[in-house]
Amino acid sequence: MKIAVVTESSANLKAQAVKDYQITVVNDPIMFGNHVYHENVDITTDQFYRLLKVEKEIPTISQISMPEMQVVFDQLQAAGYDQILVIGLSSGISGWINNLKTYAPSVDGIDVRVFDSRTACAGTANMVKLAAAMALADYTLDEIIAQLTRLRAATTTVLIVNSMRHLVKNGRIYNNSSLAGTMVLRNKPIIMFNGHGKIQLLGKERTLKNAQQAVQDEFSQFVMNSQLPVRLDVISANDAQIAEDWASELRYQFPAVRVKTGVIGPVLGVLTGDHALGMIWSLDWKPLLTTLNQEQKQ
């Protein structure tokens, strides 16, 4: 069976990865007032953060329509694919993945499965690359989903934000009864995706350095308890140098961990605002795939 892997632009996949793993990417819409922009089509990440500084209204997340997705499905079917796996941004911050789950059974002529990453950005991207690499290696769709479920269970996404107002405006904060004090200018709220993919407050610190240390302590526990290779992605919203500096420190402190840097693009940036900083850690999907391939040959 020939399996197509589809994801959203919010995964921030590099063009080379899209090409190498034959991934289909659909572009997420965001809204500033009544104006709709499509990520990487008519607004880049840099343009988004510049617009965020001058626009009076806080932007909101929109959704790719089902007719747009049907066009993608028709194109993949015409290209000879037998099955489609869509891996999307957490349903805890976007209704798109749940709408797609409802719509998928009505698609004629091709089997469409939908997987909720329950994370965003590099967290989703790592799942997409694992799925696409497995599809190219002729694993079945059920085998791919089983490994995605394993990777998702091991993935933690933690973000340090400057303000909670974007999350509150978009109604994307879970259990917001503990928000008292996070609106103080000097506080650095720390948020995370919980097991259901919803964003909740993890804590708050007085300074960015303290917040980074708090997040790093959480990551250190994961590394100590993991029996398998670990990957860490340090992501930032319009603060690439700070992310790279932090990543350099982490590479020194955790030499066995594969540490990468990435961006918080417009879709998640709608919720975090600018100058957010985060860590996404999980099992390293590449060694995981290598082990699977070795087991398959035995």
From TrEMBL:
Swiss-Prot/TrEMBL keywords: Lipid-binding
Coiled coil: none
Name of this protein: Protein DegV
NCBIfam families reported for this sequence: DegV (TIGR00762)
Signal peptide: none
GO MF entry, a single one: lipid binding
Pfam families: DegV (PF02645)
InterPro entries, alphabetized: DegV, DegV_C, DegV_domain_contain
Job of this protein: May bind long-chain fatty acids, such as palmitate, and may play a role in lipid transport or fatty acid metabolism.
